[in-house]
Amino acid sequence: MALITEDKHWAAQYPELGTDPIPIEPCLSPEYHERERERIYRRVWLNVGREDELPRGGDFFVKDIAAVNSSILIVRGKDGVIRGFHNACTHRGNKVTRESRGNRNGFVCGFHGWAFGLKGDLINVTDEEQFFGLDKSSCGLTPVATDVWEGFIFINVDPKPEQTLTEFLGDWGKALSGYTFGSMVMRDRYETEVNVNWKVALDAFQEAWHARFVHKRSGGEAYASKDNPYIHVLQFKLYPLHRMMSVPGNAEFVPTPIQICAHQFGKSYISRDGSGEGLPPGVNPTRNPVWMFDSNYIFPNFSIFVFDGMFFTYHFWPLTADRTLWETRTYYPPAENAGQRFSQEYAKCALRDTWLEDLSTLEDIQVAISSRSVKHFMLQDQEILVRHSHKVIADFVGDE
User: Fold this and answer.
1) Is 60 within 8 Å of 101 (Cβ atoms)?
2) Three-state DSSP class for residue 342
3) 46-162: which CATH topology?
4) Which residues contact 9 (CB under 8 A, 6 or more apart)?
5) What is the pLDDT of residues 326-343, one digit of tens each?
6) According to the CATH classification, is domain 10-37+172-397 in 3.60.150.10?
């Protein structure tokens, strides 16, 4: 085991994680992938969207999740309650809707016309007299446990979840509660399928060190400084399942004229305001004036990057052992004038370029480790979130 010194203080703070290299095989093995699906994704709470996607009664969206082999229907009832169901007719299993989103007073299966209400109840059966003792009250859509935290919609496909959503989020959820998520609107979204294991994709964002190298053409100079060239973070915080890091900026960074113009009217991922005024305790917890943002990782595959004035999210949805659906969503306060709208469009393009840089490494990593010429990932102190992530996953999957 490597020697822990005062300079390697995060490993000393969390000694239960150790300092040994971690194996790459879980990022390659199809068998391990199947155990992850069964023992993680089918048991824990998963974020599938935000409630502002469903502003009116009858609004719905469908989320197909390969990791749980299911299509999930999320709908807001006329009573305002958001509910989740398996998107499967209880007659012969056809999808009750093939639309990705919309507004309906109910759902009619296109196979034989069975009709369901917004609460999932079966309200009409065609040619009903030909059935044998059919009890419509027991044939509604199969419900999925659904709950909302700070506007984020979570589902759990376990018929009897071991934890409530509040218990699942634990102290991390308490620390971040009160941030202005609800006052912001989604400005843009991207998604792409990448030939990479979902853990490799997630790991690429669980340290700040890479920004100096991967993002040297975009925002790297806004973070790396002479005093902190490798972007050592202000704080790591590990929870039983979740984790966060608080990332500093470069106090000497000089924005370009176009960046100055854009930042004058709004926030972006390279604009800095470390005051911490009005922020909940879980955001910029050190209240350091060089703070730029916090990245939060909600087990297993959801990330929220929080700034003072905007936020964006990632999802890494496993498709196969070496293929992942990566989704991004970016949120800003509603633009009230042309200047704010310009600022948000500039930030959108800047973030897009940054994400393209991130994407440039992922498939190369998967190809390289697939040779198994490398057996382990060698992690340093600033990569403790990667170590924690793999430890939590391994605890769920089991050592077989």
Assistant:
1) yes
2) helix
3) Rieske Iron-sulfur Protein (2.102.10)
4) 381
5) 999 999 999 999 988 888
6) no
Q: Is the pLDDT of residue 309 over 70?
A: yes
Residue length, the chain? 400
C-alpha pair distances (Å), 325 with each of 95, 201, 216, 383: 22, 10, 26, 24
In sequence order, which ranges of 179-309 are alpha helices (DSSP H)? 198-203, 211-214, 257-263
pTM over 0.70? The answer is: yes
The pLDDT tens digits for 100-154 are 999 999 999 999 999 999 999 999 999 989 999 999 999 999 999 999 999 999 9
SS3 content of the chain, % helix, strand, coil (to 5): 30, 25, 45
| Closest by CA position to 351, among listed 310, 382, 317, 316 | 310
Q: How far apart are CA 378 and CA 204, in angstroms?
A: 14
The two domains 10-37+172-397 and 46-162 share their CATH topology (first three levels equal): no
**Closest residue by Cα to residue 301 from 285, 290, 317:** 317
- Structural domain spans, the chain: 10-37+172-397, 46-162
CB-based contacts of 236, cutoff 8 Å, min separation 6 = 10, 13, 243, 244, 245, 246, 384, 385
